[in-house]
Amino acid sequence: MSKIPTVLKNALSENSIGRVKLKLFEEITGKSDTVPSNEESITYIENLKVKDLQLLIRDVLIKRDAFLLNYLKLPQLDSCKIHFDNLKSILDEASFIFMLEELPVKFPSEIIAWVNYDSTYEDCYTVIIFNESSFPKGVLAHIKVFLLENSFKLNYLDEKGWSETIFKDKLDIDNLVVKLAFKVLIHVSNISVNRTFMSAEDMSKANEQLNNTRFAPPRDLKYDKLVADCSLHKLTCTRAVVNMDMIRPFSTSFCLEIPSEYVVEGIKDKEEFYKNGLLVYWDNESFIMSDDYIAYLISRQLEYEEIEVVIMGEYPIEKIIRVISIGTKELIPAAYLRKDEGFREDYFTSQILLTEKLDKIKRYNSVEENNKKYIILTEDSDISAIETVLKSSGFSSSEMEIDCYEGCTQIKSVELLKRRMSKIYPKMNFIVHRDRDYLTDKEIIKMREDFEKLGIYLFITEGTDIESTFINAKHINQIYPEIEIREIEEMILESTKELEEVSIDLIRKATFGRDHKKDSLVDNAMIELYKNNVERYRIGKKVYKNLKSKIQRKIKKNPDLMKESKFLKIERLVEIRKKSN
What we know:
The chain has 581 residues and is of the alpha/beta class. It folds into three domains: 1-189, no CATH class; 221-340, Conserved hypothetical protein from pyrococcus furiosus pfu- 392566-001, ParB domain (Alpha-Beta Complex), CATH 3.90.1530.10; 371-499 and 538-581, no CATH class. The chain contains 23 helices and 19 strands. The strands form four sheets. Strands 3-4-5-6-7-8-9 form a seven-stranded mixed sheet, sandwiched between helices. It is globular.
């Protein structure tokens, strides 16, 4: 458990989803000012008996985004037009949380909607409606919508218990909140999905452009004006000591762009960062820091209660602890250059992300103390699959730290990370995981060579993604011996066949782009490529989910395939571990 920073608590209190988070924190810990530990959160979730509520609570605890949804823009129920293909592609990636606004007075206040794809069943979608007063002990509505051959089936929970209705064109029930839940689902199905496939060259150029600009803080016009006025002796500057919780960064989002290893390294030289004080100005209720982002992160990480600052211009005298000196431009530390583009950020979401970043820095800081030998970097936000494969290949939890690091498969990004981290941990081994996707063998060989030149091990999956590894009859039979290997192999064949068109279409789009016009010659070539190596090209994530549904129907419970087994052992990982010892 750790205390909720005042600035974060204040930000969370500003809207309904934030207050729900705070209420859930108190429900789990019994304290109104404490964030639950991972262990406490997991225990609380596991004690819930309903799977949907378990997933909802998990998302409320960790979800980064909550979207505003205007009730007046929701579709009418004259005809039930749910775009199920679109809905599945959207919710297959992640669930959604909406805060509804402009609700009629007939509805309870401050309604929140959670929308999720239920992978336990085929074509099943869940919506739960709740608000601050009902949550987490109860919900206002809970629906599950199933796609049938020519109609829909709606299961919904009200005060009488679960009810069921089957309809084709129009939903005709009296419960207003259930109707609202169904409207929200239709809204999600109408969301546009725009995915573009970029070549490796385009990705490299985009990443290079990002790296050229990412460490220039966003422009703060008020800050620039104050610096100029102080430099011309038009304003006084005050060097003073203030409470750390009185300081707020101009851009919390920019804090998130700063690599964690910069902060870890900076902690060792923290005196260098503080010798001139943080440069700030007063704005309504906080001192705004718009310059010294790394020093600010170091202070947050070390949990300082007080810090020295240089205040430009006027400020409320009661907001400081003590004055050290008063002057003009001689007190101002060197200022960074700014980006010229306009800037806007969601402070609530950014504070949640910043708290996660500080937790990550803390983990990095403890790597050496805990005698870790490997840092494994992956772009997958869910690390359970790669962790299971690593353990099955001989790695142990005690010797490795797995971290989600966006951009780790781009050579320039990981080169920078390796160079900075190696100064701190010279004996550390770095392993980068990336999915094979639709890379050619030639591209893979080149990537491995590039990474190995930097002293970094590259692990690329055999199938399109890490989930492909778990589509293994012997592995599944080891976990569920009541299902014969032959029957599992039949399930795998069925799931693969059912997703064949999707798999071939993804090969086509990855090769020629999303807007490629159909061509019989090209299509035949794609089909032949796929059928010559089905295990290589089938879309692992979707086949894996489809297969889990079949196993669930067989064993009458939700299967857990993310378990260690000798059949998940990857020779490439065994080889890497042997080389690095």
